[in-house]
Design goal:
about 280 residues, alpha/beta, Purple Acid Phosphatase, chain A, domain 2, single chain
């Protein structure tokens, strides 16, 4: 497997969820302190959520702006696809430290993508279908698993688009009511997902990413660092809602995970919560 070399320091964040509305440039500008002095900035999925917003702002326009701001600060922006931005023509993972660090959004580690989701069963069926259509030798690879996750997300997004366009007002109200009634169940499912996420990530790594010691993900919006058997799982959290994101920082054979502090509209690196030497 060819492993691309990235200019260090490499910083990793995820789940920025840029709002495609007025003020989105300010949201991005508020992150620039995070990549000061970095050589590469990895945006680990769910950077954007739609191809084009109702006001005409496209995902491409947003990513171009992010890349320009990173370049102004002397860094290269590298985007990975998540589940919200599955449509981006970018990879779903990358490797650092000669293959010992895997960076991927994290949606693929769950067979249902998001176990709390109303349509988790539909996603699971779509992913199983995508895997069955693959050559046998590809199904058990990291690339095959990530490709099946992207394919399943695309299939459901296509179906949702048709449903949303054609559904009646009564049908939409019914769906809203069902979603509201399911909230207690969703809360329990989210808590269970947070509980099992470290072990699921470690299991996925052991099964599909031979030689990887560290896996850096996002997706669940719960930041933290966990040791599971011989694997280290890092979740960088989310900038959306009430998320409390962290930043991962790799340089000179050392991986750091830092808390972030928000001052007005800007985020700054704060104290280190975990440090690992890969030398």
């Amino acid at each position: 497997m060819t492993i691309k070399q990235y200019i260090e320091p490499v910083v990793i964040i995820s789940d920025v969820h840029v709002k495609s509305t007025n003020g989105w440039k300010g949201q991005i500008d508020g992150l620039r302190r995070l990549w000061a002095a970095a050589g590469t900035v990895v945006f680990n999925g769910d950077t954007v959520g739609v191809r084009e917003a109702s006001d005409g702002t496209s995902a491409e326009k947003i990513l171009t702006y992010i890349s320009e701001q990173c370049a102004k600060d002397g860094a290269e922006a590298v985007f990975l696809a998540g589940n919200s931005d599955y449509f981006l023509d970018v990879a779903k993972h990358l490797l650092l430290a000669e293959g010992r660090i895997l960076i991927t959004h994290g949606d693929a580690i769950f067979p249902e993508m998001s176990p709390w989701w109303d349509e988790a069963h539909l996603y699971l069926a779509a992913r199983d279908s995508a895997l069955r259509k693959m050559p046998q030798e590809l199904r058990s690879t990291l690339e095959g698993q990530l490709a099946s996750a992207r394919k399943a997300t695309a299939e459901l997004a296509k179906g949702n688009s048709c449903e949303n366009n054609n559904s009646s007002f009564t049908g939409r109200i019914k769906k809203k009511l069902q979603s509201w009634l399911a909230k207690p169940r969703k809360g329990w499912a989210i808590a269970q997902t947070w509980k099992t996420m470290p072990s699921m990530a470690a299991k996925f790594t052991a099964q599909y990413a031979d030689g990887v010691k560290f896996i850096i993900i996002g997706h669940t919006h719960r930041a933290g660092v966990w040791r599971v058997a011989d694997k280290i799982v890092v979740n960088t959290g989310s900038f959306a809602g009430f998320g409390q994101p962290v930043i991962a920082h790799f340089t000179d054979g050392k991986l750091l995970v830092q808390k972030l502090v928000r001052r007005q509209d800007e985020f700054f690196p704060d104290k280190t919560i975990a440090s690992f030497s890969l030398l």
